[in-house]
């Protein structure tokens, strides 16, 4: 199986190398001191990784970033001037707050079971935020260091495409300049999506950016949207003591998740005291009083009711950041949602102009943007580049975490594929039992005839780490038997994946 994959990849690589070589031949590489081989517009995880990789491949590279700090939405989610509080680095910020709030929650609810007694436990929110800011500042500075190390020219300012080989930049420090490039990569990412009739003021009605920077723990928090960001942010404030209600238009939370896992996940969040109003829409918002009054009604229409909150978090998805950056000046095509259309080599309809990350179709995830960035510059450099969107893992960083890769059971069924399912509950995993953290399960979906793994779905502590074994399995076309016959260290939660695979092709040992 592995050899066949290798042979197929080599064939694809040869075809791509020819195509990429043709592409770079259109423009050639820079020889003058002024012009770059690659100009990257946007310094998020897609853009900064593309810039570093391009420099590593020997291309003269410039990266333009409007915020003044690198890392994008993932690394610079913005700041709230009224509070003079910088909320840099969305992903690590969320991670830091999820970890801190989890520690508090564990201390409050679990330590006593383990014989650890604590009195006068309290949350010091400013200290928690300061810890997060410190961690994030270190990370953002680290990228600037990597730019210096790899000799990437960093231009701080707002860039606009002026021609297929020029970006005009309004510099942060004043004035303007034109950056010239043989190839331009648009990596402008995405922005918060609002909802009709709801104005995000980042005070009472906040986006994820504002929810990362609250200066007080809200007594009542309403989250509009039960996607992964809404649930993670809801979890943070729920653990810190907020009464959290999640309002969702759809009948389910995180619709892309495997149905069985999703049901258990919702039950687990409800056990943690988060409330859900599914099939419900917000039809009115009143911010005139101290808090916010939301008018809600069933998604299909019906009787209205009122929800009161101190803070409302609007978490209804993200929208590509592609307007106002000069796409129309040079004729770059987008779809109806504003996503830039690219071919398999990440090139737009304009020769030499590429796009990656949240600005193009595909999962809006930092690691996908990074993979896009690497593959895109590999193509520009005349090499092979490859991203398989079917094996991009997704993780919800609640506790326990929920991680998945590949197809859900519902997808496999809808595609008419004959399949087998193997499941293993964490209650039967010795490590999870020993640490008293046995909520969850591992579910494997495999092709009935070939036993090839089609999807893996894990709800477990550290599922976001365990999932990579499954990602590798899918990447190499492994069968459930391949994983089941692979020796796993004992006692580990990863053994639950081995057991679920055993259960898929034969029988699990420990249930
Ligand atoms: C709260 C939150 C939590 C998240 N958690 C996760 C997670 O746990 N895991 C995960 O994988 N993903 C997560 N994401 C998604 C992740 O942040 C994005 O998928 C990722 O940042 C996309 O990278 P990007 O480089 O395409 O775009 P972005 O990160 O949006 O970066 C684009 C950059 O381009 C700059 N820019 C835009 N226009 C211009 C211009 N004209 N001139 C100069 N610069 C410009 C912007 O300032 C920005 O810095 C989260 C997002 C949010 C909001």
UniProtKB/TrEMBL annotation:
KW Nucleotide-binding (keyword) present: yes
Q: Which residues form the active site?
A: 490
Segments forming domain FAD/NAD(P)-binding: 37-373
Record's GO cellular component terms:
mitochondrion; oxoglutarate dehydrogenase complex; pyruvate dehydrogenase complex
Top-level taxon in the UniProt lineage: Eukaryota
Q: Which reaction does it catalyse?
A: N(6)-[(R)-dihydrolipoyl]-L-lysyl-[protein] + NAD(+) = N(6)-[(R)-lipoyl]-L-lysyl-[protein] + NADH + H(+)
Disulfide bridge partners, by residue number: 74-79
Q: Would the keyword Disulfide bond be found if you checked this record's keyword annotation?
A: yes
Residue span, Pyridine nucleotide-disulphide oxidoreductase dimerisation domain: 392-500
The EC designation for this entry is: 1.8.1.4
An example molecular function term from Gene Ontology annotations: flavin adenine dinucleotide binding
Spell out the InterPro entries in the cross-references.
Class-I_Pyr_Nuc-Dis_Oxidored, FAD/NAD-bd_sf, FAD/NAD-binding_dom, FAD/NAD-linked_Rdtase_dimer_sf, Lipoamide_DH, Pyr_nuc-diS_OxRdtase, Pyr_nucl-diS_OxRdtase_dimer, Pyr_OxRdtase_I_AS
Which residues participate in NAD(+) binding? 225-232, 248, 317
Q: How is the cofactor bound?
A: Binds 1 FAD per subunit.
Instruction: Return the broad EC class.
Output: oxidoreductase
Binding-site residues, FAD: 83, 159, 188-190, 358, 364-367
Keyword tags? Disulfide bond, FAD, Flavoprotein, NAD, Nucleotide-binding, Oxidoreductase, Redox-active center
Its required cofactor(s), as named, are: FAD
Entry's Gene Ontology BP terms: 2-oxoglutarate metabolic process; cellular respiration
PROSITE patterns, per this entry? Answer: PYRIDINE_REDOX_1
**What's the miscellaneous note?**
The active site is a redox-active disulfide bond.
Q: Which family does it belong to?
A: Belongs to the class-I pyridine nucleotide-disulfide oxidoreductase family.
Q: What is this protein called?
A: Dihydrolipoyl dehydrogenase
**What lineage does UniProt assign to this protein's organism?**
Eukaryota, Viridiplantae, Streptophyta, Embryophyta, Tracheophyta
